[in-house]
Amino acid sequence: MSNQAPFPTLAPDLFVSPQISRQDILAAAAAGVQTIICNRPDGEEPGQPSFDQIRHWAAEAGIRHVIHQPMLMPQIDAAAAAQFAKHLADNPAPALAYCRSGTRSSFLWAMGQAAQGADPRQLVQTAAAAGIDLTAALPRLQEAQA
């Protein structure tokens, strides 16, 4: 991987991003990203690339592990966070997770980390350092904490 990460970092092997483009995928591939996780439903807003288009661009760039786990914030619970963590564990790192703003992807990661006993306040700070505001999700992270 290059010394300069092209995307904000949540964990050593996890980047987060708002909606990605073909150029972003090329940058991800150049940075060594091996897995892309899409947390965005198709058709969420006009003009967004479909998951199939993202998968096609990723294949062109040499990224073979592309996962669709579409979520809306109210749907994110312990089971969804566990599935996200399983995607990370079962696929090669580093990974790039994205949604419309990066918030859902970050929240899925944080919920999984909280369930493993991580400090919810530290998770909110880590997300903030990546440009994601999870302050409103702190109570849910505290509930998820093991």
From TrEMBL:
InterPro entries (alphabetical): BLH_phosphatase-like (IPR005939), Prot-tyrosine_phosphatase-like (IPR029021)
Gene3D superfamilies in alphabetical order: Protein tyrosine phosphatase superfamily
Matching Pfam families: BLH_phosphatase (PF04273)
Domain of life of the native organism: Bacteria
Listed GO MF terms: hydrolase activity
Chain ranges of the Beta-lactamase hydrolase-like protein phosphatase-like domain: 8-115
Name of the featured protein: TIGR01244 family protein
